[in-house]
Amino acid sequence: MGLLFQTPRARARRLVGRAPDAWTSPLRGRTVLVTGASSGIGEATAKAAASRGATVLLVARRREELERVRAEIEASGGRAAAYVCDLTDTADGGAIDLLVKNVLDEHRAVDYLVNNAGRSIRRSLHLSYDRFHDVERSTAVNFLGPVRLTLGLLPAMRAQRFGHVVNIVTWGVQMKAPKYSAYIASKTALDVWSRIAGRETYGDNVTFTNMRFALVRTPMSAPTELYRRLPGLTPDQAAARVVRALEDRPLTTGTVPGRLGEWFNLVTPRLSDAAYHRIDRRVPDSRAARGEKTGQEHSGADRT
Ligand SMILES: NC(=O)c1ccc[n+]([C@@H]2O[C@H](COP(=O)([O-])OP(=O)(O)OC[C@H]3O[C@@H](n4cnc5c(N)ncnc54)[C@H](OP(=O)(O)O)[C@@H]3O)[C@@H](O)[C@H]2O)c1
Q1: Nearest CA owner, ligand 1 atom 48
Q2: Lower Cβ count inside 10 Å, N or C end of the chain?
Q3: Domains of the chain (ranges plus CATH)?
Q4: Which pTM value belongs to this model?
């Protein structure tokens, strides 16, 4: 029964002005592993969780960026450790297995996992016929990697009868926007996998949240010219929502337009195809998606 009312109770407490603060947060004294902690939403989330009293485990590929984030957290009185890992290395005995082993050896269990690392690809089908690797790469980092990591950490969570996993997905899961087939399909796979996993781990007090974010202004969204004209959250605003999801443990979080889009797709699917098709024709691919240099790429990623 406790879990059934966990989120409504947490919301009610916030409504009556009893939101958790740095001293009363359920994150205090807990271990929070954040993937993609070297920039954007992940970096801001790691800092916000550390300021709530959690020990934060920072995971990404760029060691120097992870060390910078770790040093900044420690300089403000927080606790953090950095782990370099390429989350596309899902081989048996590969980088993710090694990460799980090191983390469990050093911390016994992870209480909260934020599957945030990811890559976004916005590219039309007609530019993708010879780019099957777009599908492979987005599936590797947005679905297979997080699932392998979660599977590695779940046994210890279930054994201690506490754990919460937050997945940073996208409102595209609800909208199904053209040009994002590779990206949205991989995020949808993680969204659905976690929903089903949560049904199996419910009895062990291990829960999942899928966060369906709209636009957040980060290095990932920067190269897409279209986004510069649209409203978006700052990484700190997004991180505040992630921390709230860690504390309140809802099943999903999202936006009103995302919910309306989901409803539109369910109730009038063909009309929704016609509307999206018109939008797709009016909004071109970005220069990066067409293979032109933008000057905003950073190492190891060809985000578009
Ligand atoms: N920005 C948005 O508008 C938006 C909207 C909805 C959802 N999201 C999702 O939010 C998440 C965070 O993105 P962001 O916007 O904060 O972008 P970002 O600043 O580019 O951060 C992406 C993070 O993922 C890490 N990463 C990428 N590939 C990795 C790999 N193979 N192994 C380990 N780490 C890897 C990067 O670190 P390294 O390069 O150091 O490895 C980086 O820390 C993503 O999952 C994205 O899909 C973003």
Answers
A1: 216
A2: N
A3: 6-282 (3.40.50.720)
A4: 0.95
